Amino acid sequence: MIKPGDIRAIADAVAFVKDYVPANNLWKRLNAQYEVGTKQGARFSLAAADHKYLRDLVRNEYGFDLLKERPLDGELDRMSLAQKTRSEKLSGEEVSRDIILVGSGCGVLSLPEGDFTLPTGAVLQLQASALHGAEQVLLVENLSPMYHLQHYLWPAGMSQIPMIFRGSPQYSPAAVAKALAGVSRVICFPDFDPQGLLNSFCTDKADGLVIPTKKARSELIYRRLDKPHDFTRQVEARDWLRKQRLGLEYVSDLLASETGFSQESMVGLDLQVADIV
Question: Which residue in 22, 152, 206, 257 is deepest, having the highest Cβ count within 10 Å?
Fold first, then answer.
């Protein structure tokens, strides 16, 4: 059987009437399974009969003609390809390629296309384009807070805006970048440590930060819920902050305290919106 991953190479060989193809694993397998091509040193030669046979194989297995249709040229997604061929897997794309994770701090998720009510602890998986047109969003650094957004004491006005997870191997950062491209303003909610601040300062369209208030930071230190080991490890981020952002009071305070605070530890404590310039 012709594998979905074989189609592009076969399409090029047939469409461009190639006389020779490399003797790589693909063409060795096609030669062994279908007797396509004649081995000549480090390559296979393809005759007119081989081109026709390959064309017929693809037409029989996937339902399109390589010389009349090139469904892969338009970078179609799986849903689109399923309307044109017998295999949506021809796209080669990850199903989650454009999926983002979005939640709400108040239980009502307001998106350009309408409002959605979310139970406590629930989030939505949406296409990146679902945020296009939003005036502002909150970009959340860690995954676990996404399932506890309604437990945070958000600054005034923050709980009503869409909250999007920054991304991970499970949720593509590239999809998040696509989503933010259609948003006017980004507020970042990071870990309050050197790396979290650096990541936020370097985020496109970032216009502010949600951070624990000074009183909340003192409370976390008093309760021994701060993370001095993370501060110690983040040498490059500390150096960058000292060179670039010492004019900000909360940056100077963080560097002087020589500790950090995770997003998870901030639940139930006062938060504030801080400027980044």
Answer: 152
